[in-house]
Amino acid sequence: MQTVDFQELQQTPFRPSVVRSALEGLLADSPGACGFDSLAVEARSPLPASWLSRYSFAIVRRGYLVRQRSDRAGRITAVDAVGPGCSFPLEPPNGSGAETHISGYAVTRALVCLCDQETLEHGLLEGGSTALQVHQLDSAAITRMERLADARGRPGAASKVAALLCTLCDTLHPGEHGDNSVPGEFLQRDFASLLSIRHESVCRAMRDFGKSGLISKSGDRIHLTDRERLQSL
C-alpha cells in the first residue's frame, strides 16, 4: 500500500484544468501557475467557515467529502458524496434571509483545490459568455436538485410539503423577484411524485396549510401567505 504524504502533496503544484481538460482559463501565463488554492481538511472535520466565505468552487484532490444543505432552523440534510476529481460547489453564508446554504465535512483526510468566484468567472469568460452561462445553469440545477433532496429528507409529510413549496417558489423562475407563489399547473399528484409520498398525504397537508392561513389559492397560483411559518415546519 502506498503511503500518502499529505504535507508534500499540499505543496506540490496541481493543475486541475490540465488534469480535467477543463477550466483552462484559470491557468496563468507563467509555468505551474494556477487559480486554485490547495488546502487540507482533517477526517471527520467540518469544512472551515472561511472556505465558504472566500471560495465558490472546489475540486477534490484526495479523500472523500460529504456535502450538506442546512436551513435557517438548523436542520441539516446530506445531499452528496464527493470523491477525487469531483467538483464541490460552495455557497457563502447569506445573511439576507436565504433559506439554505451548503456546508460539509471530510469523511477521510482530504486535499481540496478551491477557487474564488471572481477567478472562476474570469476563467470561464475566457471561453466566452456561453461558458459562464452554462456554468450558471448547471449550478442552478444542482441547487434545485439538492433542495428537492432536502425536502424529501424532512421528517413528516407536512414538513416535506412545506419545504417543497418554498423550493418551487425559489427555483422555478431563477433571478426573478417573485410573489412567493407556485404555478397552479402543478397538481398535488406532482408534489407527491417529487416527494415520493402518498397523494393523500399531500392533500391533507395542503388542506391543513389552507385552514391555518399558510397558503391561499387565487387564479392559477398557489400563494405562500405565511412563508416564515412554512419554513419553520
Could you explain how this protein is built, in words?
- By secondary structure, this protein is an alpha+beta fold.
- The chain folds into two domains: 6-148, Jelly Rolls, CATH 2.60.120.10; 154-232, Orthogonal Bundle (Arc Repressor Mutant, subunit A).
- It is built from nine helices and nine strands.
- A three-stranded antiparallel sheet has the order 1-6-2. Strands 4-3-5 form a three-stranded antiparallel sheet, covered by helices on one side. The protein has a three-stranded antiparallel sheet with strand order 7-9-8.
- A hairpin with a 4-residue loop joins strand 3 (65-71) and strand 4 (76-82).
- Helix 5 runs antiparallel to helix 6 (157-171) and helix 7 (188-195) crosses helix 8.
- The termini are far apart.
- Mean pLDDT is 77; it is low at 1-22.
